[in-house]
Amino acid sequence: MAAPRIGVLALQGAFREHRQRLESLGAQVSEVRLPADLAGLHGLVLPGGESTTIARLMTDFGLWAPLRDFHAAGGALWGTCAGAILLARGVQGAPPQFGGQQRSLAVMDLTVRRNAFGRQVDSFAVPLDVHGLDAPFPAVFIRAPVIEEVGEDVEVLARHAGQIVLVRQGRLLASSFHPELTADARLHALFLGLAAPPVPA
């Protein structure tokens, strides 16, 4: 079976690290900045970074509707940290200069709270028990959001200190932390499984 073709949204944030992890697993990876870059992809990673900055650039480059259409047509999406905020139906804690509102794709049945684990100086790493993995995952939290509510179709894969930090819903994956900042590629492998093209009948 051919390797899935994966895009990484390359507007801001840790997109290069995601590309490196995915390529180490044999995926064909390209950087996405314009709607045309989505053509032929099976999945897309929305990386960590600054969610309001990424949202503004998505508006500038006309990506909101094309990304929703990409997912509606079967494309898998994975949001890490800021990317998880961009997937969620509900976002709490947007800065006052944005009127308390955070624009998102609203494709995943989640409510998230921005920066719930503290400021940049409060960053930390912790071994995380993840459903389906046989050993803890080294999770890096940097100004991380927390997933406060999930819909009934959302599977919780991991919690930290009682808070939900990793979830899956169909071909959607969201993590509060930065899996690309470790050498452990197991969550990237999980996403490749979600994004894999269907086997012909």
From TrEMBL:
One of its GO terms (biological process) is L-glutamine catabolic process. Its EC number is 4.3.3.6, 3.5.1.2. The keyword Membrane does not apply. One of its GO terms (molecular function) is pyridoxal 5'-phosphate synthase (glutamine hydrolysing) activity. The keyword Hydrolase applies. It catalyses: aldehydo-D-ribose 5-phosphate + D-glyceraldehyde 3-phosphate + L-glutamine = pyridoxal 5'-phosphate + L-glutamate + phosphate + 3 H2O + H(+); L-glutamine + H2O = L-glutamate + NH4(+). Keywords: Glutamine amidotransferase, Hydrolase, Lyase, Pyridoxal phosphate. The active site is at residues 81, 178, 180. SUPFAM superfamilies: Class I glutamine amidotransferase-like. One of its GO terms (cellular component) is cytosol. L-glutamine binds at residues 49-51, 114, 142-143. Pathway: Cofactor biosynthesis; pyridoxal 5'-phosphate biosynthesis. Belongs to the glutaminase PdxT/SNO family. Catalyzes the hydrolysis of glutamine to glutamate and ammonia as part of the biosynthesis of pyridoxal 5'-phosphate. The resulting ammonia molecule is channeled to the active site of PdxS. In the presence of PdxS, forms a dodecamer of heterodimers. Only shows activity in the heterodimer. This is Pyridoxal 5'-phosphate synthase subunit PdxT. It comes from Deinococcus budaensis. The lineage of its organism: Bacteria, Thermotogati, Deinococcota, Deinococci, Deinococcales.
